[in-house]
Design a protein that fits this description.
The chain is α/β, with parallel strands linked by helices. Helix content is 39%, strand content 20%.
Length: 109
């Protein structure tokens, strides 16, 4: 079972959409979190340690993640998807973009 962690700012739109989509795939577990202090589900060291692959939505998320959680990122694969904050939760275009960027990285779907 591969464990995917999706991170954005607030954990309200992009990362929860990714969690919902990829949780439905066989042999994948997905969780989501946000980097802002008032995120719905804040990023935690436990979530980082749990994940096999961490996907961030923007470059700034990778920077914030490194600043706040550097000790927990050792040996972790962190991938920036370059998806701007301009989509609603479960937006059809967002789903299409997420699948087109994440599935080739996973390689088995």
């Amino acid at each position: 079972m591969r464990k995917l962690l999706f991170i954005c700012s607030q954990n309200k739109l992009r990362s929860p959409t990714a969690e919902t989509i990829f949780s439905e795939y066989p042999n994948l577990e997905a969780e989501s979190a946000g980097l802002n202090h008032d995120a719905e589900v804040p990023v935690s060291p436990e979530a980082i340690e749990w994940a096999d692959i961490i996907f961030v939505m923007e470059k700034v998320h990778r920077q914030k993640l490194s600043q706040k959680f550097q000790p927990f990122l050792k040996g972790k694969r962190v991938i920036c998807l370059d998806i701007p904050d301009e989509y609603d939760y479960m937006d059809a275009d967002l789903i299409k973009i997420l699948k087109s960027k994440v599935l080739p990285i996973l390689g088995t779907y």
